[in-house]
Amino acid sequence: MNIMDPVPILLSILLCLFVAILIYGRKRNIYHNFPPGPKPLPIIGNLHIFNMKKPYKTLHQLSEKYGSVYSVQIGEEKMVVLTGYETVKDALVNHADEFSGRPRVPLFHDVLKGHGVIFSQDENWKVMRRFTLSTLRDFGMGKKTIENRITEESEYLMKKINSYQGKPFDNTKILNAAVVNIIVSILLSHRFDYEDPKLLRLMKVVNENLKLVGSPVAMLYNAFPSVMRWFPGFLKTIIKNLNEMHHFIRETFTTQKKQLDVNDQRNLIDKFLVKQQEEKPNPELYFTNENLIALVADLFVAGMETTSTTLRWGLLLMMKYPQIQRKVQSEIEKVIGSAEPQAAHRKDMPYTDAVIHEVQRFGNIVPNNLPHATTQDVTFRGYFLPKGTHIIPLLTSVLYDKDYFEKPEEFYPEHFLDASGNFVKNEGFMPFSAGKRSCAGENLAKMELFMFFTKLLQNFTFQAPPGATLDLNPAPGITSSPMSYMICAVPRT
């Protein structure tokens, strides 16, 4: 037979397609009572219906047709989407253990290898999270010691903003730097100058990676990892950036190891190194160099990105709504005057507190939430979810839930105020997620947001440059950040 004869080749292709469709059909119907969803196509699943730059928008829209628990398929993987406050809270809080897993997302697994705290699993995650929470508390999270650091850092930030003399500037780098210096003080007992080349480089590679992992290419990588690995440029860039950051961390802890004093543990790295020494006789090691590098990187990125992005949203919204900015400033004058803002002032500043909450809600910083997975077979709201099911508890649908927010599409601080102007909690407010995988640095972030925001509005009035258009549409990415904008900070006398 001629090896180039097209007939057997065509028959082989048809046979392969038949087998693939047969297997695909069986995989689709493998579970009874699985949540409903849009009909997937062979190979690509539901990928064709997604807004690839902002997939959370598609997921939110699909809930209107399929309900608060439904399924989608990306490539060959079925995922279950949970929408609305009631459903997401039910899963993450009322069924906390069952929904506390993390799925094996191909991109993050290939890059992080299961180390650290954010994308780790099972016992490694439990050990790293316990260590992280206890260490953050030990080094002042929610206490006066960290409050003093924020006060000190805010002075550096005011000085930097003053240097622009009211002229337009981009606030991204300086807000990133101010916020990251707080977590760096816990990680390394250190702060960076805002123009430090090492800091600027670290922030650059972090921001580049955040854009890449939130890009359409990343979605394709996770859908078709075995194919996408044949096109290594995307992954190579992410790994190159991550290696640069890991090299800095490795150098830092190598230096600290030489100076380590068990009786004087100065920061998180010191505490980790002490744990490492204590663990050595144990055959099951968790306090490894790989976990240390990944954990510090996780906390650096998480400690910088969400809080600084929220502040950027806050200043953009104050420019967009100057009447709200004036009301915040009036409350600052009444309660704080020219004194230093302190965390204790928050209880006497209901309007400012409401504005900050609404910035977090409207900004919708982590719109998809981080993915979860079921740790065991579970029947949830009448549906059967097998162990290991990839779960998307969609935070967008919570923060924009019409049952809890009167005007979800608008920036409306009254979502957190009663008729008398008192601050009221809103159950639908869940920017830090909930349950066992909720943000470990929530209390630190709340303190930073209040103290930096009030200090900024105490010292400056923020205005758009003449003729500028203020765009409230978020930029694409794994986090929902404002489009790049220029800002003028006019000193208040």
Quickly describe the structure.
52% of the residues lie in helices and 7% in strands.
Question: Largest sheet at a glance?
Answer: 4 strands, mixed
User: Averaging pLDDT over every residue, what do you get?
Assistant: 92
Q: Uncertain regions: pLDDT < 50 for 5+ in a row?
A: 1-14, 16-29
Over the alpha carbons, how many angstroms does the gyration radius reach? Answer: 24 Å
Calculate the terminal CA-CA distance, rounded to whole Å: 91 Å
Order of helices and strands: HHEEHHHHHHHHHHHHHEEEEHHEEEE
* Structural class designation: alpha+beta
In percent terms, what proportion of residues is strand?
5-15%
Counting DSSP E segments of at least 2 residues, the number of strands comes to 10
Key terms:
disordered N terminus, two-stranded antiparallel sheet, 52% helix, 4-stranded mixed sheet, alpha+beta, globular
Description:
With 493 residues, the chain is of the alpha+beta class. It is built from 17 helices and 10 strands. It has helices at 6-28, 55-66, 85-94, 106-112, 122-138, 144-162, 172-188, 197-213, 216-223, 225-228, 233-258, 268-279, 289-320, 322-335, 350-363, 395-399, 442-459, and strands spanning 69-74, 77-82, 372-373, 378-380, 383-385, 390-393, 460-463, 474-475, 481-482, 488-491. The strands form 4 sheets. Strands 1-2-6-3 form a 4-stranded mixed β-sheet, sandwiched between helices. Strands 4-5 form a two-stranded antiparallel ribbon. A hairpin with a 2-residue loop joins β1 and β2 (77-82). α6 runs parallel beside α17 (442-459). Mean pLDDT is 92; it is low at 1-14 and 16-29.
